[in-house]
């Protein structure tokens, strides 16, 4: 029996197949799907900000930032038995929801989130196998731990499976 | 400091609500001029709440929503966002553009987007104007930006930009009723920590 579990904003969940992990309405946030296909162990993280370094360590919610969230999610998956060497990643989100004026500080956070997620994955030697990122629309992710498929849906551009 | 919204007591919330009331009153007058109709506004429900509660009040994370966002800056810094669900937005656009040959209700044209942007602009200016008047602070507003998408995706933008503020938002829900129509809209206000403190201090109730 597969169970569907919702991952909130600044939240992550690690689980085993055939469970389905869902996170709704990513705007400039990024959803990161990590997967060990041999054991069907996966995790979904919904991060808001690129990195935790500008904040003091004891005040932060580690699930909010790309650097801390991905590291902690990997630990949780390893606790379930996942092998670091087999983990691969698929990511979606990081949009620019409002087309602000060029040069405006507001609106670049989606790009910075995507860049940071990619750097963190690279540092952890986790290969990125698919992405549906940037542009200007919201996305919902369904991550099927039975198959490793990441389904990305949006209001106007339909649904794509990766 | 980090969770300043949690430090707000009932008096602070009352003050925010009163700011919301004054802003809504200004907005009603301005809207009535444009809509050529008498616009009545219910007493706004002002809530200081977390992200999920606010998104659910908008009909859920994935519900199609029109958002108009403005940044304010100067003595006070933050964002204000006007959110209205798609069906109500269509109604507003229909009323605004009567006789302009924009009869297809389901088509979102540039002109319709401009119209809804202007409504957001009026509401945003009304709220920020009321804060500026009450506090004597100099506050500037950016031009309005509009997007149509999932409620959760739109709301996450200001949450991210001002996310350090304990992830709470000030959520103002109000109903506008004209002769024939009833509309529900929401205004979400985000303020930098310092801004919230300055506003309260200016009003004589420090946090």
> Based on DSSP secondary structure assignment, what is the total number of beta strands of chain A?
10
CATH topology heading of chain A:
60s Ribosomal Protein L30, Chain: A
In the residues of chain B, how many domains can be counted?
Answer: 1
Our measurement of the CA-to-CA distance between the termini of chain A, rounded to an integer number of angstroms, reads: 23 Å
Low-pLDDT regions of chain B = none
Question: How much strand content do the residues of chain B show?
Answer: 25-35%
Description:
The complex is a heterodimer of chains A (162) and B (207). Chain A is of the alpha+beta class and 162 residues long. Chain A has a single domain (4-155), classed as 60s Ribosomal Protein L30, Chain: A. Chain A has two helices and ten strands; from the N terminus they run E-E-E-E-E-H-E-H-E-E-E-E. In chain A, strands 1-3-8-9-10 form a five-stranded mixed sheet, with no helix packed on it. In chain A, strands 2-5-4-6-7 form a five-stranded mixed sheet, covered by helices on one side. In chain A, helix 1 packs across helix 2 (109-123). The model of chain A has no long low-confidence stretch (mean pLDDT 94). With 207 residues, chain B is α+β, with helices and mostly antiparallel strands. Chain B has one domain (4-202): 3-Layer(aba) Sandwich (Chemotaxis protein chec). In chain B, 46% of the residues lie in helices and 27% in strands. Chain B contains seven helices and eight strands; from the N terminus they run H-H-E-E-H-E-E-H-H-E-E-H-E-E-H. In chain B, strands 1, 2, 3, 4, 5, 6, 7 and 8 form an eight-stranded antiparallel sheet that branches. In chain B, helix 2 packs across helix 5 and helix 4 crosses helix 5. The longest helix of chain B is centred in the N-terminal third of the chain and has 26 residues, at 10-35. Chain B is globular and about 50 Å long. At the A-B interface, strand 3 of A face helix 3, strand 3, strand 6 and helix 6 of B.
């Amino acid at each position: 029996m597969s169970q569907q579990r919702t991952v909130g904003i600044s939240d992550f969940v690690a689980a085993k197949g055939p469970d389905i992990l869902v996170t709704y309405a990513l705007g400039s946030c990024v959803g990161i799907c990590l997967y060990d296909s041999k054991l069907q162990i996966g995790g979904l993280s919904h991060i808001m900000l690129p990195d935790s370094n500008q904040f003091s360590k004891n005040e932060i919610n580690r699930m909010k930032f790309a650097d801390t969230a991905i590291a902690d999610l990997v630990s949780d998956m390893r606790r379930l038995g996942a092998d670091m060497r087999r983990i691969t990643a698929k990511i979606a989100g990081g949009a620019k929801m409002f087309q602000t004026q060029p040069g405006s500080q507001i609106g670049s956070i989606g790009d910075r989130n995507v860049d940071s997620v990619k750097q963190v994955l690279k540092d952890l030697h986790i290969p990125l196998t698919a992405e549906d990122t940037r542009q200007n629309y919201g996305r919902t992710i369904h991550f099927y731990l039975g198959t490793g498929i990441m389904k990305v849906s949006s209001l106007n551009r339909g649904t794509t499976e990766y | 400091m980090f969770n300043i919204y949690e430090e707000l007591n009932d008096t602070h919330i009352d003050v925010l609500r009163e700011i919301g009331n004054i802003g809504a009153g200004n907005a009603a007058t301005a809207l009535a001029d444009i809509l050529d109709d008498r616009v009545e506004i219910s007493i706004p429900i002002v809530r200081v709440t977390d992200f999920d509660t606010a998104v659910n009040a908008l009909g859920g994370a994935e519900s199609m929503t029109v958002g108009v966002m403005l940044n304010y800056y100067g003595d006070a810094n933050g964002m204000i966002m006007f959110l209205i669900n798609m069906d109500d937005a269509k109604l507003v656009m229909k009323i605004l553009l009567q006789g302009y040959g924009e009869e297809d209700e389901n088509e979102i044209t540039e002109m319709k987007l401009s119209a809804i942007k202007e409504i957001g602009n009026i509401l945003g200016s009304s709220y920020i104007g009321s804060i500026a008047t009450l506090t004597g602070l100099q506050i500037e507003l950016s031009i309005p930006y509009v997007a149509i998408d999932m409620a959760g995706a739109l709301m996450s933008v200001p949450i991210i930009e001002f996310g350090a503020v304990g992830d709470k938002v000030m959520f103002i829900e109000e109903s506008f009723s004209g002769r024939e129509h009833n509309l529900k809209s929401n205004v979400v206000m985000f303020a930098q920590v310092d801004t919230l403190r300055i506003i309260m201090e200016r009003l004589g109730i420090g946090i």
